[in-house]
Structure formats: structure tokens, C-alpha cells
Amino acid sequence: MPTPTPPPSGTSEVVLYAGQATTKSGSWTSVSDVSAAAGTRIYQPDAGVPKISTASANPAHYFDLTFSAEAGRPYRLWIRAKAQNDFWGNDSVWVQFSDSVNSSGASVFRIGTTSGTEINLEDCSGCGISGWGWQDNGWGVGVFGPQIFFQSTGTHTIRVQAREDGVSIDQIVLSPGTYLNNSPGALKNDNTILPASNGSGPPPQPQPPSISSVTPNSGSSVGGTVVSINGSNFVVGATVKFDNAAATNVSFVTSNMITANAPAHAVGPVNVVVTNPNGLSGTLTNGFTYTQPPPSEIALLEDDFNDNSLDLSKWTPNALFSGFTDSSLSSIETAQHFEIGPLLTGQSGSHYNGIRSARGYDFSGAYSYVELVQAPSASTKGDAMLTIGIDANNYYRIYVEEGLLICQSKTAGVKRNLFASAYNSVAHRFWRIRHEQSTGNVLFETASDNPGVAGSWVLRYSERWDTAAIPLSSIFFELKAGTWQVEAVAPGRVIFDTFRVAKP
């Protein structure tokens, strides 16, 4: 058995040994193994059972463990697992909790429901697996899954249930600090064993929030500017004020970032204040400056798809710029929206179709948004995509796949997933990609409704716009959907509406 790594100090880390499960049912069984934590792993033999596509409210095969955790703190979920015969079809499980919530406080991944967070040991299609490895609940190279929060402080239950049989697990980690943004060990051929801890040790003393910067640090006096507040010691439920005016759409992202919409205020500098639910607060003096509102915006390209006939002066059909086009896949303006599909079932290879803008536009300081009325089935890897760029090797994209909302870039042929979270058909109904003139950044945003109303957009990710790879002078826009592998379940139709490109 490997020598345990010393425990982290100053945090309430949770390190559970799966072989010591408090409850187990079905085919999960404890097996002696000198390479595993405490010399024991919990294992579900490969019985050739098909993959379970949705977590079960009453699973036949599961095991439970109990631990202690605090309300309002973000935890990162990790497991150390091994797939039988190093086969990718033996490497995944569903995980649920007794009272888990998301960053907004809504229940998610709950025991007794069909909501679960999925862990796949293999990091991408074709990445391969070997021996023991550490993985979180995100899929994709360099992609983290959603953080776990808890509704109350105290004792909680974690349930691991079958997804693909043939998987072994020996350690489960829920980390609010040391492993929040770093893996406890290697993804392949790992020998890291952490000392067991159920998180019941004394938590660190609460520290007041501290603000290091606000991005952008200026905006219109009419309010509605989406800002990222950067700093430390932020917790779920924190409030934000600009002087004495409360910000709207405050969203906890991590303990180091909060996003919010600036309220209306008189022109001039203001203090930005973050206050945690425990009353501790932090202030950035003159952290934001209000400016005169900009002139009315200029529409570059817009379509409400209400006339049930594709406007060929605006759009080119059956000729996608970001990848291969399968023109046999139905793509039509109908019923006052734009519809693609039904997406294919049982077909291998790339099958995408949609529309792209008939010409390129100067996108400096502009934005593009679309409404996703209907996404593909979350039990498939069918895609719905908004892409802006110049060609198949250089673009920015927001899309939905397998129940995840993903922000992505591809520059000089290199693809990167920038952000991913569980897709919510209400909160993420509108998608927006924009170029911020003041910072030179590309911003990925979502809104639930009324995208033209100031204050409705929530920032999901931002970074410097790569103007070398994606020049702003002639940007094309594309709405597409499709499949890239054999889908056993029908992905359904994808429906878009309310497309707009404009310069404020």
C-alpha cells in the first residue's frame, strides 16, 4: 500500500475510503487490494450491463458514506478510480448527495431524485486510462465540473451509484481548499493515498471578503453593466453594493469571483462593497466609475424568424463555416422559429446542419445573441451551437451537449473548453458572445429572458480576444446542430429563435 500523503492543514478536507461504505446495495462489494486506501477498494464487477444514462431515484446498485461539510462553501468532488481491464466502458459512476445545492442555492444532484453528477475516469474520447487515476465531475481535458455546495452545515451523505459496471473506487475527496482547483493525484497510474478525514475537524475562522479588482471598472450611469468582482473569501449568498445602491443578478462563481450587474447611479466613482451572510464585508474604494450612457446601438444583423421563410439576404443555408455540413439533415425556418432536425439516431460520423451569415461584419465592440428554445436530449451528445468567427479553425462558441452548457474557443486549429456548467433551460435560454471595446476581451454571457433589458445578462467567462487568429474586421455568425457519434437515444430537434448582432 502506498505511503499516505500528509493531510492538508487549515481546511476541512473530506477524504473518504470507499471500502468503508456505511451502506452498500446490489453488486458493489469490498475487495482487499494492497494498492488501495486502507488496503480495500469497493468494486462492481463487469457484468456486461449497458450504460445507465440517467441517475436513479431508487438505484439497485449503490453505496453510501457519511461526512461533515459546511453550508455556503464550494467543494470540489474527486474520486480515485480504476476501470476493469483499463476499458473506457468500465470507468464511470453517478454521484448524489443528501442536501447538495448549486451556487444559487437550488437543490441539485439529490439522493432520491434522477439528478446526478457524472464522473468519467477517461478525460476525453480516446485519451485512454491506465491503472488508478483521480478525476472530478467534469469531462474534457482541463475542464472542471460544477462545484458542490451544501444547504446546511453538519452531517451529509454521499451516494455513488452504478453507471458503467467494472469500476473500482478507493478514495473520494470533497475539498473546499487544497484540491479546489488542483487534483489530489495523477489521472493515470496514480499511487496517491490521502489520510482519511470526514471533514468534522474545526473549520478555519471566517475571514472577511477582500476585493482586488472590478472588471470592467467603469460603466453607464443607467446601470446594467455586467462586472466580475475579483478577490478572496467570497461565499454563497454574498451581497454587493455600489456605494449604497444594491447590485442585481449577484452570482457566486468561486470564492475568488462574484459576478453582478451594476445598479443605476450618478456619474462618478463609487466604492464597491461585498458583504458575506455572516456580516463580514470588504470594500474597494473607488472601485467602479459611472460614465455618461452611450448613444443608441446600431443593429448589424437580426432575425426573429417570424415569417417562416429564410431570408437569403441575411443567411446562407447548408454551408457551415465551422465544420462539415450534412445538407440532408433538415434545417428550416418554420412555426416562427429556426429548427434543425430531428437529429440523427444510430448514425456514426459528423452530421451537422444550420445557417451562417451571408457575409462577415465588423464586430469591434459588438455583441451577438440567440435564444435556444429547445436543446437536444441531455441523455445524448447531440449539440446545439452558436459560433462566431472566420473559419473552421478560428472561432468562439457557446453550445449545449449532454446536459452541459460549454463555452469554447478554437484558434489556429487548437480547441479549448473555457467554461462548463450544468445546462439550465430557463437560466440559459439566451446566449451572448460579445467583444468588449474597453478591455479587448471576449465575453460569454447568458440570460433567462428579455435580453434587451439592462441587467439581464450573467457573465460566464471572459478572456483576451485573440485578434491575430480571429480578426474583428469580418466576423461570420452561425447557428447549427447535429451529432458526431452513434446515438442510441433520439436527440430530438433543436430550435433557435431571436437572433441579433448589434453595436451599443
Structure notes:
It is a single chain. The protein has 504 residues and is mostly beta strands. It has three domains: 14-198, Galactose-binding domain-like (Jelly Rolls, Sandwich), CATH 2.60.120; 210-291, Immunoglobulins (Immunoglobulin-like, Sandwich); 298-503, Jelly Rolls (Sandwich). 0% of the residues lie in helices and 45% in strands. The chain contains no helices and 38 strands. It has strands at 14-17, 23-25, 29-32, 40-43, 62-69, 76-83, 92-97, 100-101, 117-120, 133-136, 149-150, 154-162, 167-175, 197-198, 210-215, 218-220, 226-232, 239-242, 245-246, 248-254, 257-261, 268-275, 281-291, 298-303, 315-317, 331-334, 337-340, 351-357, 367-374, 383-391, 394-401, 404-411, 414-422, 430-436, 441-447, 458-464, 476-483, 494-503. The strands form seven sheets. Strands 24, 26, 27, 29, 34, 35, 36 and 38 form an eight-stranded antiparallel beta sheet that branches. Strands 1, 3, 4, 6, 10, 13 and 14 form a seven-stranded antiparallel beta sheet that branches. A hairpin with a 2-residue loop joins strand 26 (331-334) and strand 27. The model is unreliable at 6-11 (pLDDT under 50).
Quick take:
With 504 residues, the chain is an all-beta fold.
How would you classify the helix and strand content by structural class? mainly beta
Note the overall shape.
globular
Radius of gyration: 24 Å
Mean pLDDT across residues: 91
Kindly estimate the percentage of residues that lie in beta strands according to DSSP: over 45%
Q: How many β strands by DSSP?
A: 38
Helix content range of the residues, please? under 10%
**In the CATH classification, which architecture of the largest domain applies?**
Sandwich
| Termini separation | 62 Å
Number of domains: 3
CATH topology of the largest domain: Jelly Rolls
Unreliable stretches (pLDDT < 50, length at least 5) are 6-11
Q: Main β-sheet: number of strands, strand sense, barrel status?
A: 8 strands, antiparallel
Look at the structure and give the CATH class of the largest domain.
Mainly Beta
